[in-house]
Design the sequence.
């Protein structure tokens, strides 16, 4: 019989994209999730396909040198029923000269770019047709995929949501920063695949690297290393923490990952300046969600950076309450990392689920600046020997802090201090703009028997905890808020929990600070040599902190660290209290004018009042939001904004898609930086 000739074909990008939940990536290319069938249509000319006479088979290939044995190449025939394992192709329906075929990848397939070839043969005659390329992603909807997540609302939040919230500020004043993850925006998928192809493991051994791309543990480790550039590996971001960001973007100014990833690619995979922990974490979250791995950004307050691994953070203070830098160990006000959801078949049972991945360059792991995936369950149980990097994350949430007061003669006195590390571990709630506290997933309740057992297992000394209530107790209180541009008061509250009178010296010192714990100049001080406390008495000592004193040295982190030192004359005992005060920025107001509807013009009115006593110059608003803006909209104000005056402008938008979108705004100026605001906008679908 005559040869079977393929005339045209249709990869049905739109229908397959809808069914595979990748339609938001556009219908220019076929993007699929593994383990899930997809349909293509073949049109033959001359005659139609005859079962039994004609043989059809497909070839799929990924990576530079596809081979069957490494899972990067597969050859499979069109059959009557799907294969149990491996790739399969089944005739769905035949209609004249057109043939619908359902293809399916195994749920353990390598992810990445594939080419698809059709081979036809009739008797001894055969032909081969390259019918296109597609991208394969992880599939959180497939029960046999290692990233399978059972709950649909969670899949929507952790795989599909392109916008979210990141928590910052201080333990006692948690702030919310909006973030545009934008994992389905134009170019982002191809940039994420480029990222995998610029990683050193790929450059060393391309076949081995591609053959391991079916494993989310491997992918997570590669992404964690590639988001920073500390290994000269063409990583995405350069970290900087010294408050000098003039030759790049300040880490506080970003409001999304898309801009960062596009810059990285545009400048030939050169690191983008500059990142800090939440920027590293958010970009890693974008890449992981883009590849189909459920992921979220988490924030740990009072996060320990334990460089020598002894689970103790030693801090040294002079008698005046000034920090003496003798230790590389630090307590960060907060620290962000990523959690990604995956099974851990490489470990004993019980460690599947959320894994901590930390792309901020801090310590090397297996010779590379990356951290994780560390099963959150292993951190909670104190199983420090499991892969990867559990001791480091365990210390971040559990280290003990000891304050040493160094006297003029060099003598050091140990101060009692309760457990302060690893508080209010936070992530965005599923489907809502609120904070979910996930501390309990990292640690057992404080003081519980289980906590003691974990500490024994992890060889952490438990002695310095719970010495709170004997003798003198000291804490620092803030009355009302602390607003940028205003003076405010903090109070040292001292309790005498004994039956005798006590006489003490109280030192109070405030300094501007960065979120990594480093401090700047003093901006408020009080030294009382004679504080007398009657038995069972409580007294409160105010310290006024003046705007004119903190104005010059306040960093973009907006933090002031207040240290109180109470020395009892009779015994020489010292009690220390520390509090980080967050200086609140003004609110950005966003008004939406008109009824928001898909593909119809919408106006947003964006404004902010200058709270300072001096004018703001070089004022810039940056606006972005997936589905609402095409990329970023930047508005530079011509005039300075006078004190108490309003900076205001209007922006025209044409929403591309229906549903819930977030409009995010960042405000920069010479004296007020990194001010963030957002507004949820519900876009009605276009009337049919």
Sequence:
């Amino acid at each position: 019989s005559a040869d079977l000739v393929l005339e045209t074909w249709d990869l049905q990008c739109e229908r397959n994209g809808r069914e595979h939940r990748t339609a938001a990536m556009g219908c220019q290319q076929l993007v699929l999730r593994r383990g899930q069938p997809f349909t293509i249509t073949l049109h033959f000319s001359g005659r139609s396909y005859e079962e039994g006479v004609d043989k059809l088979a497909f070839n799929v290939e990924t990576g530079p040198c596809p081979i069957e044995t490494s899972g990067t190449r597969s050859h499979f025939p069109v059959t009557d029923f799907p294969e149990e394992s491996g790739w399969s192709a089944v005739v769905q329906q035949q209609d004249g000269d057109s043939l619908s075929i359902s293809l399916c990848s195994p749920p353990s397939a390598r992810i990445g770019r594939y080419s698809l070839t059709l081979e036809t043969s009739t008797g001894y005659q055969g032909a081969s047709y390259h019918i296109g390329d597609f991208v394969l992603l992880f599939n959180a909807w497939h029960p046999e995929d290692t990233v399978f997540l059972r709950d649909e609302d969670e899949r929507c939040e952790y795989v599909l949501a392109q916008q979210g919230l990141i928590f910052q500020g201080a333990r006692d004043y948690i702030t919310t920063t909006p973030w545009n993850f934008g994992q389905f925006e134009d170019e982002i998928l191809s940039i994420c695949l480029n990222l995998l192809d610029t990683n050193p493991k790929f450059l060393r051994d391309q076949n081995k690297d591609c053959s391991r791309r079916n494993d989310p543990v491997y992918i997570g480790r590669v992404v964690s290393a590639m988001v920073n550039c500390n290994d000269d590996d063409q990583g995405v971001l350069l970290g900087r923490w010294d408050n000098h960001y003039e030759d790049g973007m300040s880490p506080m100014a970003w409001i999304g990952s898309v801009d960062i990833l596009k810059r990285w690619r545009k400048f030939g995979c050169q690191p983008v300046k500059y990142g800090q922990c939440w920027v590293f974490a958010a970009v890693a979250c974008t890449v992981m969600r883009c590849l189909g791995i459920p992921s979220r950004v988490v924030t740990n307050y009072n996060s320990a950076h334990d460089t020598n691994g002894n689970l103790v953070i030693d801090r040294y203070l002079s008698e005046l309450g000034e920090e003496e830098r003798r230790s590389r160990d630090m307590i960060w006000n907060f620290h962000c990392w990523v959690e990604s959801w995956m099974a851990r078949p490489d470990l004993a049972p019980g460690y599947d689920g959320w894994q901590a991945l930390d792309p901020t360059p801090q310590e090397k792991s297996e010779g590379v600046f990356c951290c994780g995936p560390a099963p959150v369950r292993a951190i909670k149980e104190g199983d420090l020997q499991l892969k990867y990097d559990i001791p480091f994350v365990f210390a971040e949430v559990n280290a003990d802090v000891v304050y040493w007061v160094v006297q003029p003669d060099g003598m050091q006195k140990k101060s009692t201090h309760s457990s302060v590390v690893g508080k209010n571990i936070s992530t965005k709630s599923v489907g809502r703009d609120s904070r979910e506290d996930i501390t309990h997933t990292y640690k057992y309740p404080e003081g519980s028997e289980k906590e003691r057992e974990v500490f024994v297992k992890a060889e952490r000394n438990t002695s310095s905890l719970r010495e709170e209530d004997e003798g003198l107790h000291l804490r620092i209180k803030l009355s009302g808020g602390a607003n940028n541009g205003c003076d405010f008061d903090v109070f040292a509250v001292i309790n005498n929990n004994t039956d005798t009178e006590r006489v003490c010296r109280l030192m109070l010192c405030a300094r501007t600070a960065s979120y990594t714990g480093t401090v700047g100049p003093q901006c408020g001080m009080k030294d009382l040599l004679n504080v007398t406390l009657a038995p069972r008495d409580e007294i409160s000592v105010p310290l006024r902190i003046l705007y004119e004193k903190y104005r010059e040295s306040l960093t973009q982190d907006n933090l002031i660290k207040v240290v109180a030192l109470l020395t009892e004359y009779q015994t020489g005992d010292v009690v220390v209290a520390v509090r980080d005060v967050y200086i609140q920025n003004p609110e950005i107001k966003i008004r939406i004018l008109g009824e928001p509807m898909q593909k119809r013009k919408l106006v947003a009115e964006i404004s902010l009042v200058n709270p300072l006593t001096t004018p703001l110059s070089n004022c810039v608003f940056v606006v972005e939001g997936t589905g609402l803006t095409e990329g970023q909209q930047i508005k530079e104000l011509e005039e300075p904004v006078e004190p108490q005056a309003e900076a205001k402008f209007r922006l025209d938008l044409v929403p591309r898609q229906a549903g819930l979108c977030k409009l995010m705004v960042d405000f920069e100026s010479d004296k007020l930086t990194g001010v963030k605001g957002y507004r949820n906008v519900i876009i009605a679908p276009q009337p049919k």
In short: Residues 464-469 have pLDDT under 50 and may be disordered. The two ends are 49 Å apart (CA to CA).
